[in-house]
Amino acid sequence: MVRIAIAGGSGEVAREVIDALVASKKHEIIILSRNGPGLSNPHNLEWRQVDYEAIGSLTQALDDIHTVLSFVQLLRDPENKAQKNLIDAAIRAGVTRFAPSEWGSRAAGSTMPWWAGKDDVKVYLKQVNANAKVLEYTLFQPGLFLNYLATPHKTSDHLTPLNTFVDFHSRRAIVVDEYDAIMTFTTVQDMAAVVAKAVGFEGPWPEVGGIRGSRVTVSQLVEIGKRVRGGPFSLDTVKLEDLEAGRLTATWTLEAQHHSVSGDEAEKLLKAVLVGTLLSSAKGYWDVSDEWNQLLPDHQFAKIDQFLEKAWTGKP
Fold this sequence. Notes:
With 316 residues, the protein is of the alpha/beta class.
């Protein structure tokens, strides 16, 4: 049994992982929260209220913890102070393992500024371990959640359906001229199951922890869409240089938005997310590695064709 602290445990991806951990019946789970348990605590888990500005109290909250899984919302963590304080507190408390708030692409770079904090935290983790390993960590990177290709239909318990630049519902896609990007798609359920197994993994954690459900090119994905949806897809082609200049020349943009962002901020973010996802795909940032596939060879991942056929059968 491992004692696990979940930072940002009220988030959607965190709740998917919590469900998988609870289902394993192998670990003790503690939720770290700024606000306490609130109204929803279906598993009756222990909650510890924390102040991410106060390293002393954070250290105390982690005193008996073996593994910390972070789902800190990057948009609400200016300068990544909360995660860096969490890392410092974990080291002081003698935590063995740490997973930062990744849960997506293998990099962000300048293409996805809303996720730039991920790269900053990676650098910080390397710095704290520069002279000697004081904290074992892994970067859980499942690529894009396959569930999003079923939008607007909900295919998991907690994840909000969000559309992408390949829109199965409206049978359309935006492609980058001269770039047939390679994408990794993993269901949020598979990601959560792998994390639950990784927590109990007896060997050392790999620093880069790729989780690869399916690896396809955008053109292959469009072909799957044609078969699954029973008809052609309309294609908008955009140029890399326009995207790099922040220009979106496609005839449509993203529509579904996350509940944590609203109003004018949401409209700006939707355009930025679409431009950034297209750019990052062209640069190969969604082609993640498969370290956890190799370390957990018995896990059977959902196949992209079968998942999408089931999600769209009988749907208009």
